[in-house]
Amino acid sequence: MNILRSLLWRALLVAIGLVLLYQVWLFAHICWWVKFNPSTSAFMENRLAIMQDKNPNAELRYKWVNYANISNSLKRALIASEDAKFVDHEGFDWDGIQKAYEKNMKKGKIVAGGSTISQQLAKNLFLSTKRTPWRKLEEAAITVMLEAVMDKRRIFEIYLNIIEWGNGVFGAEAAARHYYGTGAASLTAEQSAKLAAMVPNPRYYDGHREARGLLLKTDIIMSRMSDAEIP
What we know:
Largest sheet: 3 strands, mixed
Number of helices: 11
Strand content: under 5%
CATH superfamily of the largest domain: Biosynthetic peptidoglycan transglycosylase-like
Distance between the termini: 59 Å
CATH class of the largest domain: Mainly Alpha
Number of domains: 2
CATH architecture of the largest domain: Orthogonal Bundle
């Protein structure tokens, strides 16, 4: 019995050690990305693998652009759409989480999310697409790391460059060229609002660009953009 207990304790310590090493690995990447741009993300790699299952020659459309070379209209549209309190919170919008929880409970299913831009970035950079309690805990831990190491401008710059905007389309520059044949710096307010409206379901809207719900949400975002504060 003592031998079994000793083995269990050793296994537990090994497991704890591996978890801690993984957190150090995550933190090291985040520190590196303060100055250097990520070339890919866990979500991008996942999407590429799915695309190449159907077509081995498939490639992602992706090009990094600096923060200054992205339209302020797009920045305001995304803040207005995804995270109105982005510049003020420390990674979590507790009021938004509470409202999303109440809405989901009322509907009896998940119809709203309370994730901030920082949380979305944490998920896209490192985590799988599977929804598990462990993933939500890891997402929270990574969010804390991002907010501790990076300023809001850097968090938002990376977010703008790696979020999905269509089937194999990632980042503001690729999205601007894919939908409007222009660069991210030249996007108009209306174009920006429509791109922001696509973010929750980009692959669907890539093929349904005049969907009624998309156009309605575009109008709502446009009405809120003037109040959006960007870093």
